[in-house]
Amino acid sequence: GGVDLDPPALVRAIDFLGFTLRDQGHYARAEELFDEGLVVARASGDRWAIGFSTYLQSTLAQDVGDLERQARLAEESLPLLREQGERLGLAYVLNATGDVGLREHDHARAAAAFGESLALSRDLGNLRGIGFALVGLGVVARRRGDNTAAARYDADLQRVWELELRPVLAAPAIAPRPLE
């Protein structure tokens, strides 16, 4: 027999493979897997699995330029991840929500989303999330004409880059192999 996985574990496995394919530029195959993960999640009724799957679907939609779908999926994911206490996923979906706010010129929404993401990301030590949030907050500040705040966010981002992200990104990595 096969291995029986509970819905959240199965969704994580499916979505991890889809995420890997997405990062390698195999968007169509990633979308197939993300769709499968979302079907499993919805069929199970597991709210964490649905929130996680819709978040990952939203990232793919943004990557391929389907911004209406990205906004809809991020909006669906946000309350589910919040209620499940999924802080890392919540930080990322808040950044996506901030991006939607920027696109719609809703600076209050964008600032609130990026600000909450920044606090969560700092609490978690999530450098990537910190970087995304600081960039978003800087854009909001510039659009509002607050150059002092924008300069502060830029300086914070530069510090994170110099002290923490650059050394991580400079480390040798395993090169992805093309799909056959």
Question: Low-confidence segments, ≥5 residues, pLDDT <50?
Answer: none
Q: How far is the first residue's CA from the last residue's CA?
A: 28 Å
Rg from alpha-carbon coordinates: 17 Å
Determine the strand fraction and express it as a percent band.
under 5%
SSE string: HHHHHHHH
Strand elements, count: 0
Count of helical stretches:
8
Largest sheet: none
Mean pLDDT: 88
Considering DSSP H and I runs of 4 or more, what fraction of the residues is helical?
A: over 70%
Structure class: mainly alpha
Q: Name the quaternary structure.
A: single chain
Principal-axes geometry comes out as globular
Question: Can you walk through the features of this model?
Answer:
Helices cover 81% and strands 0% of the residues. The chain has 180 residues and is an all-alpha fold. Helix 1 runs parallel beside helix 3, helix 3 runs antiparallel to helix 4 and helix 7 (127-143) runs antiparallel to helix 8 (147-170).
